[in-house]
Amino acid sequence: MKWKIRQEQEGDEAVIADVTRIAFEPKAFSDGTEETLPAKLREAGALILSLVAVNGKTVIGHVALSPAKVGDAKWLAVGPVSVLPDHQGKGIGSALVNHAVAVAQAYGRGGVVLEGDPAFYGRLGFVQSDALTHQGKPSRHLQAITFDGDAEGDVEFHPVFSG
Ligand SMILES: CC(C)(COP(=O)(O)OP(=O)(O)OC[C@H]1O[C@@H](n2cnc3c(N)ncnc32)[C@H](O)[C@@H]1OP(=O)(O)O)[C@@H](O)C(=O)NCCC(=O)NCCS
Question: InterPro entries from the entry (predicted)?
Answer without folding.
Answer: Acyl_CoA_acyltransferase, Bact_Acetyltransf, GNAT_dom
